[in-house]
Amino acid sequence: MANDPKAYLVVSVLLFAIGMAGFLIRKNLLIVFLSVELMLNAGALAILVFARLYGDTDGHVFFFLILALAAAESAVGLSMVIALYRLRHKLDTDDLVELRG
Amino acid sequence: MHQVFFWIFASVAVGAGLLAITRKAALHCALSLVVSFVALAGLYFQLKAPFPGILQVMLYAGAIMVLVIFVIMFLNAPEEDPSEKISKPGVIASVFLLIPFAALLIGVILHSNLPVPAAVAPDFGTVASIGTRLFGTWTWVFEVLSLLLLAALVAAVLLAKKRLD
Amino acid sequence: MDLIYPYLALVVAASVILVAKFRTGPKGFAEAGPIAAVGAALAFGLCILQWGKAATPTTGFHGFLLIDRLGVLASALACLAGAVTAVLLPHHLQRAGKDRAEVYVLLLLVIAGMMAMVQTDHLVGAFVGLETLSVGLYALSAALRERRASVEAGLKYFLTGAFASGILVFGLALVYGAAGSFSLPVIEAKLVESSGLALAGILLLLVGFGFKLSAVPFHMWAPDVYEGAPTPITGFMSTAVKVVAATALLRVLDATPAFSGQIVEAVGWLAVLTVTVGNLSALAQHSVKRMLAYSSIGHAGYLFLAFAAFLATPDTAGFSAPLAAVMHYLIAYTITNLGAFAVLSALETADGRGLTFADLGGLKSRSPVLAFTLLIMMLSLASVPLTAGFLAKWNVFAVLVERARSSEGPFFWVLLVALILNSVIGLAYYLRVISAMYMRPAPEPLPATSPVSKVVMAVCILLVIAVIWLGAGPNVLGMGADGLFSIARAAAG
Amino acid sequence: MGTALSLIPLALLAGAALNGFFSLWSARGRSVSRTLVHVVACAAPLFAFAMAIQVWRGLGEAGGRITTQWFEWIAVGDLRIGLDLTADALTCVMLLVITGIGSLIHIYSTAYMHEEEGFARYFSALNLFTFFMTILVLGKNLAVLFVGWEGVGLCSYLLIGYWWKDSEKATAGMKAFVVNRVGDFGFLIALFLLWRTAGTLDFAGIQAYATSEAGRATLLGPSGILGASVATLIGLLLFWGATGKSAQIPLYVWLPDAMAGPTPVSALIHAATMVTAGVYMVARLNFLYALSPVAQGTIMVVAGVTSLFAGVMALAQTDIKKVLAYSTISQIGYMMLGVGTGYVAAGMFHVVTHAFFKAALFLGSGSVIHACHHEQDMRHMGGLRKKMPWTCAAMTLSAAAMAGVPPLSGFFSKDEILWRAFSHGTMAGKIGWLCGFLGALLTAFYMFRLIFMTFGGSYRGHAHPHEVPKPMWMTQGALALGAAIVGFLGVPHILGGHDIFGHYLAPIIPDFAQPHAAHGEHAIAVEWSLMAWSVVMGLAGISAAWWAYVKKPELPGRVTAKIPKLHALVRDKFRVDEAYTATVVRPTESLARQVVLRGVDQGLIEGIVNGLGSVARLLGRVLSFGQTGLLRGYVGIMILGALLLLLSVLG
Predict the structure, then answer these.
(1) pLDDT for D40-91, tens place per residue?
(2) What is the number of domains present in chain C?
(3) What is the DSSP code (8-state) at residue D68?
(4) In the listed set B25, B43, B78, which residue is the last one of a domain according to the structure?
(5) Predicted confidence (pLDDT) per residue in B1-45, tens digit
(6) What CATH number corresponds to the domain at position B41?
(7) Total structural domains in chain B?
(8) Does the residue B101 lie in any domain?
(9) Residue D543's pLDDT band (boundaries 50, 70, 90)?
(10) Domain that holds residue B139
């Protein structure tokens, strides 16, 4: 690894923060959903960096698990989005305010 | 050379990531994210993790994101949707919360004593090594993971099937 | 192989339902509920059978599966909660006009995920278990997908939960970076001195688990989701999830003693915030279900108070009193809250409108058994003496007093005062339920409830007996007021 | 003997359970025989009374203490608390009062509640209450006492709210419960302090600790709070709890409202037994109070002021039960004053005599209310002497006993208290005595005001009063007879008596000594003159009442007209409720109370609901800050929390 591993980690933190920002600035459910993927990938990148540092394959296995998790979450999340769309024909998080107080 | 590729991949990943949450149309966002993920795959290759890199391109950018894009194209109404707008208070909150947050984490990382990168075995990051590990020592986690995927499958059926009852 | 019998019971039951559902097709499959209940009850029994052997922890699957008493106890509670939920669900779904066998499959898988989460000392093992239960619960919250509230609850839970998962993954990454392994024993051996990277990682893990435990300020989702989800599922979420999340968090905290001193105050303040916000908000609610949602946040706060004591207690050989207090509290709280939600779910009307306090009016004559059950459960939640809840809170109190006296500074006295004041506040809103049932006239017109099945009644009565016996009963067959403590103590050993 | 001890509470519990079952039965629409319910309800306390007598008689040969262990109840670390019962002389006194007078009140209730619906539920709660009361006095340790303490509170709450259709009554129950919780708060802290200090909650253990050298040193040592010693701190916190249960200043406010319950309930709970729980507790822990003159002094002053203050408020009430309610507060003040002096036999004696005459008065007032068709205002009574001769006789006798007319019981018990307070040798003792002494005048006045307004003159109401059924007048007669003669148990030495009661309790009082020994012969002279003075005050009060309400009935009206403001102030109970609203209720209690109230009904406690409603709404707003349903807000708060967490720990 020619670069300082810390540089990779900084990239990972930046992606993580961008993912979080997506939650704060967007109302579209699907884009919020994309932000989750961004956050997960940030974590995955950090793990791969550390796996490289320690020469440890466990990190790679965990990456595989994150991938599977992302797939599972997208399946559930998208079907919920569809269920909502059937009811409301809207994909706006600001519309999810029936429960509050 | 390595250095140059790192900067290219890193800036593309971050830049496309930023676009992914700021573009107006959901479809554009998703496509930006795919770009970001491909750039990330490049970083993974640099980290001597070829198999995760391939998975990233094939499964993440390829399969999962395609699913998302499908849904976006199915559901998104063609006309301008107010939900596409960016929330101003959200931007302000992001600036005030996330810049310190990121700075804090970056500070922690920069001040940490990371180990010197270990010399790695030649099969590090290959399908064989990961597969052996996953189906060798990590069988239990793999079993639980299969429950997770089954649960996701059943959940998708429960939620999205049109005529269930 | 015998280590995974409880899992087998759950998975086999789930498979049976799935296959049978395929065969019956759109006609529906009415036996799904009973099968799921039997499966969960069987898993509960198998966990109990493991108790004796688990005195000496055994591992399987290359060390990924760990059978110790802490994990067995938490698993048993999760199975118990699941079995009760499976009994309550058919009534609830039928009233909504739905017959959804998939719900039971998910429930069983969620329980299996919960067990996997606590029966391991590997962070990734716990994480995958956590995600299994999360994914299942997102869908269960939205199970009544024709109801806007249910779908909204599911989506809110999903989005905030995915956010918390992201934080958890990043925290795992940082801890991995500091220790070079995901295995808790290795982490404990490696992280002998504090490092910023590991500390940040542990804090992010705390946020992730705090989310599942609905600790303030990571609790915002909880009232909405609890209100919108089908009531039996809410009962399940507010009990089983807390049990396993608390147990897993305890394992993490236990493996990082080098950081205890640094995070104890933060955890303590989280606890104070959680009890106060939970209890005060509960005061202001109109809906009983939402009130119970806030009450469960308050109870998470009591758990966090015990966590603070746990962190401040020097690591010694033998059992840890705060850990025992947490487990004791979880047992009592699980049984009590399940009882409360059982009554709530039995009383709900077909339109899914939330129950208000007025709807409870005159319940004592409309349904004496349900009223009495709710009375006992409210007393136990308010930790009135002679109930299980009293002993549990007494235990938390005792460990805090112990800490307050042996530590420098007033910090634990502050926690103690928070505990006492909030217990007094708590009484006010639990009493409100009792007064509605026993003092107020029935609402006009009477809400249209459907008749409650005998099985649900029997479950209510059993839970009442359990609450009283665990709070005041003699130690028979290892259970009872004293037995409960020895169980918690053994689990903490 | 241990069996008899266990049977006392168990019999009552069985009665409660049986009647509870009947109640459920009848709620299902099935008919339940009234006679059966009555037999069960009365048999339980009567049987308990028989067992109590047996325990009392067996006490001597058992060495003054009978103990029985049920099972280990709490085992938390080094703290092991058994559900154990014990009886000594003090317990026996309480037991006999609770079960004896309790039995009579149960019998009275069978007639009084004759027309009511849900009588099985009523008797179930009444039995349960008696059960908890016996647990309270039988507890071998403070934890068991606390179980009884909470239990009686709960039953009181159920019984006050017995007529739950009447929202005001339901609220009164709630008020009693909430005010008591405020007291319990202090009690619980004291409990934990005591446990941490002495390492045990057993009375015997605490006593052994308090008398050991090391324990004494710790208890007398500084507690670190406002310079008080540990014993003072614990003592004051316990007394805080006692003010709640025993209706002393400042937590007395619930008792007058609690009179909303059925009258026999008032007689049993709010006169004879539960309200004396605080007195019993202080007496039980007298060895602890002996170590803290500050706590003792506080008790004497608070108790003395309470007795005077409540007496003044009783003066201006027109509701017959309210008069009795305030008089109860005042009399408990005397009891507290008695136990506060350290010579607990004085206070306990008043507990006994008061149980008789106050129960008789309450039952009598119940009979009057019953006869006048639920009229409680004395201005619409009068002339009942001829219509209800038995009730009149019983009430007059009891009132005389309470007013301290010799040789009725109240004379001996009150006199003993005042004398002990006077000769306590402290400023607090003197203040307590002065208040109590002035209170004696008031007692006599307001009691006979009640008697004259109710039974004297001619009838001013519209009902057709008649004598009450036999079980009712006979029980109140029995109690009045008791009120007349029970005083002879405590005839002091200077009157040629032997103070049987005092000697009976001697084993539980560490320094049982007559002040004569300390003060010499002139103390006897003091005792004589105090006694005479009290008698004069009592008679003066009675005469004043006679003069004002019989001789010149127009006088009170003239006085009222002359000093309207003062009278209004007194009638409005010194506006204490209002003051509470402004000071205590709002900041502390309001949260709890308001929601309780809102849950029960709107607009129940006069004038405060609106104010408190907005407080709770405001609070709800503040706390649901951000609970807007908006996902972005939720995530934002999570991020903020995570950021603060990281900053606080890493920073």
Answers:
(1) 889 999 999 999 998 888 887 877 788 888 777 666 556 677 788 888 888 9
(2) 1
(3) E
(4) B78
(5) 788 999 999 999 999 999 999 988 888 899 999 999 999 999 999
(6) 1.20.120.1200
(7) 2
(8) no
(9) confident
(10) 123-165
Residues B1 and B73 in one domain: yes
Query: Among candidates D415, D405, D647, D406, which has minimal Cα distance to D529?
Result: D415
- Could you give the 3-state DSSP secondary structure of residue B79? coil
In chain B, what is the greatest distance between 2 CA atoms, to the nearest angstrom? 60
B78, B94, B112 - which closes a domain? B78
Smallest Cα distance from B38 to chain D, Å: 28
Which residue of B lies nearest to C132 if distances are taken between CA atoms?
A: B148
Q: Is C419 on the interface with B (CB under 8 A)?
A: no
Same domain assignment for residues B2 and B70: yes
Out of A68-82, C318-332, C357-371, D91-105, pick the least confident. Answer: C357-371
Question: Mean pLDDT in chain A?
Answer: 88
Q: Which of B6, B21, B141 sits opposite A18 (nearest CB)?
A: B21
Of A20, A96, A100, the CB nearest to D627: A100
Q: Do C160 and D631 touch (CB under 8 A)?
A: yes
| Structural domain containing residue C391 | 265-493
Residue D553 has a pLDDT of 67
The answer, as to whether pTM is greater than 0.80, is no
Distance of alpha carbon D172 from alpha carbon D169, whole angstroms: 5
Q: Nearest to residue C345, comparing CAs of C102, C93, C68?
A: C93
What lies within 8 Å, CB to CB, of C251 at 6+ separation is C70, C118, C121, C126, C184
Residue C38 lies in a domain: no
Is residue A14 within 8 A of residue B14, CB to CB? The reply is: yes
D427-457 pLDDT, tens digit per residue, is 888 889 889 988 888 898 889 888 888 888 7
Q: Over chain D, what is the mean pLDDT?
A: 79
Over 80: is that where the pLDDT of D556 sits? no
Q: How confident is the model at residue D618 (pLDDT cuts 50, 70, 90)?
A: low
pLDDT confidence tier of residue C136, bands split at 50, 70 and 90: very high
Per the domain annotation, does B88 fall within a domain? Answer: no
Three-state SS sequence of D426-447: CHHHHHHHHHHHHHHHHHHHHH
Residue B34 lies in a domain: yes
In a domain, C141, yes or no: no
Inter-chain touch D643–B104, beta carbons under 8 Å: yes
Residue C454 lies in a domain: yes
Interface residue of A80, A85, A95 to substitute, partner C, most C CBs within 10 Å: A80
The verdict on residue C486 lying in a domain is yes
Q: Is D200 helix (H, G, I), strand (E, B) or coil?
A: coil
Write out chain D residues lying below 8 Å of B100, CB-based: 643, 647
